[in-house]
Design a protein that fits this description.
By secondary structure, the chain is α/β, with parallel strands linked by helices. Helices cover 25% and strands 35% of the residues.
Amino acid sequence: MRPARTTEVARATAGTSEAASVSVSARATTPGSAAPDGRVTCPVLRARSLTKSYQRGMWPRRRRLDVLRGVDLELCAGQVVGLVGENGSGKSTLMKILVGALDADGGSVEVSGRVGYCPQEPLLYERLTCDEHLGLFGVAYGMDPEAQSAAAESLYDTLGFARWRDIQVAELSGGTRAKLNLALALLADPDVLLLDEPYAGFDWDTYQRFWELTATRRAAGRSVLVVSHFVTDQERFDRLVEVRDGKALAQ
């Protein structure tokens, strides 16, 4: 049985562009170990026996494509885990199920705390500036104005794109869009951060900034799950999990 789940969604559309963030808060039905302050440390995210299939083709040649075939995954506080696999292996499908954007056919997901989600493709509102995006998402996250403003300033400084704060998304480069996409996921300081190919559009400086930020979050007891079709810096991860043949295999 799927655990109780509260999902907050901020969405704005214009033409073919869309801005969306999914934040999931849920109490784990089977809590993990706890720190002295009572915070659940392991697992903060647990997926059990997740399955997902799609129907392909037209009748009478219609067939079922099994994407996930019983995936098990756990993420503990203060861990940086890499989820790897070939293109089409089911990594993004798994990620969408974990954040509640897609229903699994079977299995369960348990989450403790707030989840931040950075999708592979930046889904942004072309007519809004960076400041307006962060303000909109701050409201969606239920943040008070002072906390939202302070968090936005910190992210501008950390990711290095403050000079673009008053520029509409339509005029931003792909790299700056990627920074804004990541900033929106980080704005509310989530306990669990799920990133789908987060650094695909980063230059070398931003790539280094990303890993410095990730290390800071790990030290603060936050958890990060990074989806990528390849990993070059294995030493930055506590663990690598490969999605292959619909299963999650520890490396």
